[in-house]
Amino acid sequence: MGDQIDNSPYRFRMNVNETVFLCTTDSLTEREVKLFKERTRDLYQVNMILDNLPAMRFAKQNGINIQWTGFPVGYNPPQTNDDYVINHLKFKVLVHEYEGRAVEIIGTEGEGLGIIGKSDDKGKKSGYEIVGFEVIPCSIKREAEAMSKFKMYDTIDTVNCPGELEKSQLIREQEKITFTYDVEFVKSDIRWPSRWDAYLKMEGARVHWFSIMNSLMVIFFLAGIVFVIFLRTVRRDLTRYEDLDKEAQAQMNEELSGWKLVVGDVFREPSCAKLLCVMVGDGTQITGMALVTIVFAALGFMSPASRGMLLTGMIVLYLFLGIVAGYVGVRLWRTIKGTSEGWRSVSWSVACFFSGIVFAVLTVLNFILWGSKSTGAIPISLYFLLLSLWFCISVPLTLLGGFLGTRAEPISYPVRTNQIPREIPARKYPSWLLVLGAGTLPFGTLFIELFFILSSIWLGRFYYVFGFLLVVLLLLVVVCAEVSLVLTYMHLCVEDWQWWWKAFYASGSVAVYVFLYSINYLVFDLQSLSGPVSATLYLGYSLIMAVAIMLSTGTIGFLTSFYFVHYLFSSVKID
């Protein structure tokens, strides 16, 4: 590195405050002026759209300053038709002085480490650590003739960013624009381990608190319904039923109504039982991966200084949680079928279902990127590495989990199942309509955080509020459990004993709204994406995300409903 950071076109000499000349353009033509103004005003329109987003309106009304990534090409002041170009950048580099540490000069690769080292006469190491920087864009008008004598990277006189439009660089024909930048090194009290704390103090906290309060309102509303179900309805019926003698119980059995009528069918094997077991197994794996990853990130183990650690941690956790997925899937299979026969097929399906969907989507997207000669395609070496990890780690662990599931005791049903299935009464409206509508409640819990997550992925904005994300995840789990429980009870009350898949999709249907929101985000917020290839790439990754959310939330809802139904009918005494 020497005494200079070379990151063309900007070159900094360490600990030297200076203003540097880059270049001066030729006289602007009519076409170039038109292009400049289009770029300037297009970005202005984008900012107007962003400012009108619901989350952004809430932020502005509450005095929250949300900064966007990058800076515009220029700006158009209010009440004027003139456009001004951003032709000067002020770099303020924050450095922390240290001494007594045996370090040498280290480059700026990897984790962004930059240390300026030196030794004093006694051989004691000392120097400066780069702990942050600020970039301030501005417009400065300079005389083209005076700048013509300078060459690139020559040092020139420092000029402060002007506050008057007369001293700013106007975009017009025959105008020559000079591009410059200046660097200022400022000593800071921020220590090296604390350099990322600025991201922990993100200013959008009120928006996240608004999301949490919104979720709590939904939870309390659903908790009230669950409270009524348990204490006023279920418990009352069971208490009255248990107080009767056997003869009275026998007479009452003939007069049963509501959920008590389906006692002989409630645990009847569902359709596509194997697929249900596979999806619940994969959902357990994805939920465990997400929960553990976010907990570690919230505790500070996933440092933003180590790029890729979050994704790497998710992949490693997903691979090793295959043992849990296999165990849950096979044990549920044994519970439904009453036998371990076919557990290998279930385990293989668990290992290949979600991973197969992911690899199929990635393969299609990669062929599209290769066809368009894009550098964004996954390298073939990395592609085969992921395949190797899948078949060498995830699949064997899933099979091991399935084997352990065969050794575990199946969950015994509290009531017998009749040989002849009971007829389900006709309904005025299809049950899937209620199931689909139930997904709006979990979606209301996560949609604000979803906006910030999509912005961090596709717009390059920094996201490090994992504490809020952990709280939202826990609230989402509670909402999914409550929604599925309430809908399961409603279906049982109308003598609909086919509750298995409805319990899964009652909470899993949130994935439909997540995918629709992703499309809305693409249309209205990602106008910077150009061409069908970029849009296809975005939709492909959004589809993977939606499927993962469906499996995770569906599993939470199904397991809650399963244990609710098991508890409910274990209290019924019917001979």
From TrEMBL:
<keyword id="KW-0472">Membrane</keyword>
<feature type="transmembrane region" description="Helical">
    <location>
        <begin position="275"/>
        <end position="302"/>
    </location>
</feature>
<protein>
    <recommendedName>
        <fullName>Transmembrane 9 superfamily member</fullName>
    </recommendedName>
</protein>
<feature type="transmembrane region" description="Helical">
    <location>
        <begin position="539"/>
        <end position="565"/>
    </location>
</feature>
<feature type="transmembrane region" description="Helical">
    <location>
        <begin position="308"/>
        <end position="333"/>
    </location>
</feature>
<dbReference type="GO" id="GO:0072657">
    <property type="term" value="P:protein localization to membrane"/>
</dbReference>
<comment type="similarity">
    <text>Belongs to the nonaspanin (TM9SF) (TC 9.A.2) family.</text>
</comment>
<keyword id="KW-0967">Endosome</keyword>
<keyword id="KW-0812">Transmembrane</keyword>
<keyword id="KW-1133">Transmembrane helix</keyword>
<feature type="transmembrane region" description="Helical">
    <location>
        <begin position="432"/>
        <end position="458"/>
    </location>
</feature>
<dbReference type="Pfam" id="PF02990">
    <property type="entry name" value="EMP70"/>
</dbReference>
<feature type="transmembrane region" description="Helical">
    <location>
        <begin position="464"/>
        <end position="487"/>
    </location>
</feature>
<dbReference type="GO" id="GO:0010008">
    <property type="term" value="C:endosome membrane"/>
</dbReference>
<feature type="transmembrane region" description="Helical">
    <location>
        <begin position="209"/>
        <end position="231"/>
    </location>
</feature>
<dbReference type="InterPro" id="IPR004240">
    <property type="entry name" value="EMP70"/>
</dbReference>
<feature type="transmembrane region" description="Helical">
    <location>
        <begin position="345"/>
        <end position="370"/>
    </location>
</feature>
<feature type="transmembrane region" description="Helical">
    <location>
        <begin position="499"/>
        <end position="519"/>
    </location>
</feature>
<keyword id="KW-0732">Signal</keyword>
<dbReference type="GO" id="GO:0000139">
    <property type="term" value="C:Golgi membrane"/>
</dbReference>
<feature type="transmembrane region" description="Helical">
    <location>
        <begin position="382"/>
        <end position="404"/>
    </location>
</feature>
